Automatic annotation (TrEMBL):
B box-type domain ranges (all copies): 108-150, 170-206
Residue ranges occupied by any RING-type domain in the UniProt entry: 30-77
InterPro entries in alphabetical order: Bbox_C, Znf_B-box, Znf_RING, Znf_RING/FYVE/PHD, Znf_RING_CS
Gene3D superfamilies (alphabetical): Classic Zinc Finger, Zinc/RING finger domain, C3HC4 (zinc finger)
GO molecular function: zinc ion binding
Keywords (A to Z) from UniProt: Metal-binding, Zinc, Zinc-finger
Name of the protein described by the UniProt record: TIF1B factor
SUPFAM superfamilies hit by this protein: B-box zinc-binding domain, RING/U-box
Protein species of origin: Oenanthe oenanthe (Northern wheatear)
Subcellular location: Nucleus
GO cellular component: chromatin; nucleus
Length: 367
C-alpha cells in the first residue's frame, strides 16, 4: 500500500522550471556539513524537521540554548529557536536497528514466576500474565480496573510492534523497563515512574502510544498529501498561465511591430508622393522663371548696347556721321522702347501642413 507522500511526490521529478525536490538522502545527512549522521555525531532535529550534527549546531552563535536565540537552518533558512531543537531519536539508533521492527518482551511484575506478560492494567500500569489477570479480576479493589491484552488498541493497528529496539531500562529505575509513555511530559516512563512522579499524568503502554500517534500523524499526513497535491496542481496551472502570458506578450510585440512597420511604410509612401509633387511644382516654377530671366537678360543687353552706341554718337564731333546713321539709331531706339517688361507673377510659398496635435491624438489611440 503506497503512502500519501509517495502518491503525491511520485518519482520526485517536479515540473519543468520548478525547484528540484530535496533528495531523500538529505534526511540522513547533516544540513550544514552534508556528512552522514550517526549516533556518534549526536544528530539534532530542528523544528523545520531538518537535521544537523551536534558539532555544526555548536558552531552557531548561542548554541548553549539561551532564550531569544535562534539557529538558522542551513537548508530552508527557517529561524529555529534553540529551545525547540531536540535530539534526532530516529537516527540515534539507526546503526543498531537498521529499520527492523523488534517487539519489546515484557514479564509479569505481579508474580515471582517472571511469566510472560499477556495483558496490561492501565490503572496499575503493570504488565500481567494470564494467572495474575484472573486474580486481578477477583479482588474487589482491582476488579474494576481496565485490563487489556498487550496487542489490543483503541485505534486500528498500524504495525504489530514498536519500531526499533526496546527503549531499555529506566534511567531513574534501572530495574524497570521503559514501557509507558507519559503524554503530559512527552517522556518514556516505567511502572515506578508512573506510580511516583508521573502518578497523576495520563500514561499508556508504549505500543498503544505509538499506534495512536501513528494513526494521528497518518491522518495529518494524508491531509497534507491532499493539500500538497492541490498545491502542485495550482503551481502547474500558474506555470501554464505564466507561459500563456509570455506567449501573449510575444504575440503582441510582433503585432505591434508589424503595425508600426505598416504605418511607417504608408507614411514613407505618402512622404515620397508629397516630395514628388513638391519637386514637380518647384521645377515648373524654376523653368518659368529661368525663361523670363533669359528674355530679360537679352533685352537688357540689347538696350545697354543701344544706350552706349547712341550716347557715343551724340557725344561724337562727327555730325555728318550722326545724320547718316540717324535712321538706324532711331529705329533701334524705338525697337528698344517697344520691348515690354512683364511683371513677375506672385509666387506663393510651398508649405507642408500637418496637424501635430491631431497626429498626437491619433498616435495615442493607436492600438
Amino acid at each position: 500500500m503506497s503512502s500519501p507522500l509517495a502518491a503525491v511526490l511520485g518519482n520526485g521529478l517536479g515540473p519543468k522550471g520548478a525547484e528540484p525536490p530535496e533528495p531523500p538522502e538529505l534526511l540522513e545527512l547533516c544540513g550544514a556539513c552534508r556528512q552522514r549522521l550517526s549516533p556518534q555525531r549526536e544528530p539534532r532535529l530542528l523544528p523545520c524537521l531538518h537535521s544537523v550534527c551536534r558539532q555544526c549546531l555548536g558552531a552557531a552563535p548561542g548554541a548553549a540554548g539561551s532564550d531569544g536565540q535562534a539557529f538558522d537552518c542551513p537548508v530552508c533558512h527557517q529561524q529555529c529557536p534553540l529551545g525547540d531543537i531536540m535530539e534526532n531519536f530516529f537516527l540515534q539508533d539507526s546503526g543498531a536497528s537498521s529499520g527492523q521492527l523488534v517487539p519489546c518482551p515484557q514479564s509479569c511484575t505481579s508474580c515471582e514466576d517472571n511469566a510472560a506478560a499477556t495483558s496490561f492494567c492501565l490503572e496499575c500500569a503493570e504488565p500481567l500474565c494470564d494467572t495474575c489477570v484472573e486474580a486481578h479480576q477477583r479482588v474487589r479493589y482491582t476488579r474494576d480496573h481496565t485490563v487489556r491484552a498487550l496487542g489490543e488498541s483503541l485505534s486500528p493497528p498500524v504495525t504489530p510492534c514498536v519500531p526499533g529496539p526496546c527503549p531499555g531500562p529506566c534511567p531513574s529505575h534501572p530495574s524497570e523497563q521503559l514501557a509507558l509513555f507519559c503524554s503530559a511530559c512527552d517522556a518514556l516512563t516505567c511502572r515506578a515512574c508512573h506510580l511516583g512522579s508521573h502518578r497523576d499524568h495520563p500514561s499508556q503502554p508504549l505500543e498503544d502510544a505509538v499506534r495512536q500517534q501513528r494513526s494521528v500523524l497518518s491522518a495529518l499526513l494524508q491531509r497534507l498529501g491532499d493539500k500538497h497535491a492541490a498545491l502542485q496542481r495550482s503551481t502547474r496551472e500558474l506555470r501554464a498561465g505564466l507561459r500563456r502570458a509570455a506567449d501573449v506578450q510575444k504575440r503582441l510585440q510582433v503585432e505591434v511591430k508589424m503595425a508600426v512597420l505598416q504605418v511607417m511604410k504608408e507614411l514613407n509612401r505618402r512622404g515620397r508622393a508629397l516630395l514628388g509633387d513638391a519637386q514637380r511644382v518647384s521645377d515648373a516654377r524654376q523653368q518659368r522663371l529661368q525663361c523670363q530671366h533669359r528674355a530679360l537678360s537679352r533685352a537688357q543687353r540689347q538696350q545697354e548696347h543701344v544706350l552706349r552706341f547712341t550716347t557715343r554718337a551724340l557725344d561724337s564731333p562727327h555730325g555728318a556721321a550722326l545724320l547718316l546713321s540717324r535712321r538706324l539709331i532711331h529705329s533701334q531706339l524705338l525697337r528698344a522702347l517697344r520691348v515690354t517688361v512683364e511683371p513677375l507673377e506672385p509666387q506663393g510659398d510651398l508649405k507642408f501642413q500637418w496637424d501635430r496635435l491631431a497626429w498626437t491624438r491619433s498616435a495615442e489611440s493607436f492600438g
